[in-house]
Amino acid sequence: MSCEEQKLKTNKEAGPMRVMVTGGSGLLGKAIEHVVLHEGGKLEGEEWFFLSSKDANLVDLEQTKAVFEKYRPTHVIHLAAKVGGLYLHMRDNLYFLTDNLKINDNVLQTAYNMKVTKVVSCLSSCIFPDKTTYPIDETMYGIRIHNGPPHDSNFGYSYAKRMIDVLNKAYFQQHGCRYTAVIPTNVFGPYDNFEIENGHVLSALMNKTYKAKKEGTALTVCGSGAPRRQFVYSLDLGRLIIWTLREYNEISPIILTVEEDAEVAIKDAVEMIAEAFNFEGEIKYDTSMSDGQLKKTASNAKLRRYRPDFTFTPLKDAIKMTCDWLTANYDTART
């Protein structure tokens, strides 16, 4: 039975969804769980399963098959990935390439074999070409995503993520499978990885600022603070991913991000973090450290065609809420 036939069969039976979320204990998984459990994101009769690495090592095909057999999902939100901060990616590009290729192939192959109706995978803005015109969009099955190599700092992770888009297109072409992907820009929020060495830029800076205030030292920021990014609050993204699962039927990926004019310099974000923590110490920029990609502006025009009225949480407010969460949960957070 093809994916399209399975979809028609499932629709006729009209049974409730059984949604399995890989990477369910991470930043986005926790955000989706919050929306499902506390914002009415779960419809009557539905079952949601949030997996962590303790449930299965998705690099291993047999473990992937076993967890699908256990939960028998009709729908999958695929968030699991091997991921780290800029400097960890620069050091271990091979590791991030090979493990993520295995994870993604195992999940989609098993989803097909188990006749899963729909899979929504999560890509990353780092897949965008390093040398391109801005803003980036999703034109023609994401052809602009593949139009040139990604930034060299994290090419392993980026190419592995790009291949999800290729796999989705191939599964649709050959089997009629409704597999798609979302492309968020820089995500942050509660339950993030706040490790200074391995966390993403905002989460690492929040931890640095928290420690600098506590210890009465200066805050040192890696790089010049000049790179610009579109930051997205994790709960906003969780709401949009659930919408994608229910309503978005294209195979082509969709970029989920704030408007282009909401892009800010890292230096501006640092000042918002300092204000959120009431940090009044010295802020130093270590320009001997790499800035990474200076910009990777993405267009949300496609999202706005579908969801013109969706309201993103203002960045300053989202940073304040995340800093407050970190302060309240510092002993148990990933720091």
In short:
With 335 residues, the chain is an alpha/beta fold. The protein contains twelve helices and twelve strands.
Descriptive account of the structure:
The strands form four sheets. Strands 2-1-3-4-5-10 form a six-stranded parallel β-sheet, with helices on both faces. The protein is built from twelve helices and twelve strands. The longest helix is centred in the first third of the chain and has 21 residues, at 93-113. It is globular, with a radius of gyration of 20 Å. It is α/β, with parallel strands linked by helices and 335 residues long. Strand 1, helix 2 (27-38) and strand 2 (47-50) form a beta-alpha-beta unit.
Instruction: Figure out the total of helices.
Output: 12
Which series of helices and strands comes N to C? HEHEHEHHEHHEEHEEEHEEHEHH
Helix content: 40-55%
Largest sheet: 6 strands, parallel
Shape: globular
Mean pLDDT: 87
Across the major sheet, the strand order is 2-1-3-4-5-10
Report the end-to-end length measured between terminal Cα atoms: 47 Å
Strand portion? 5-15%
Radius of gyration: 20 Å
* Regions with little confidence, pLDDT below 50 for 5+ residues: 10-14
Q: Using DSSP, what is the number of strands?
A: 12
Structural category: alpha/beta
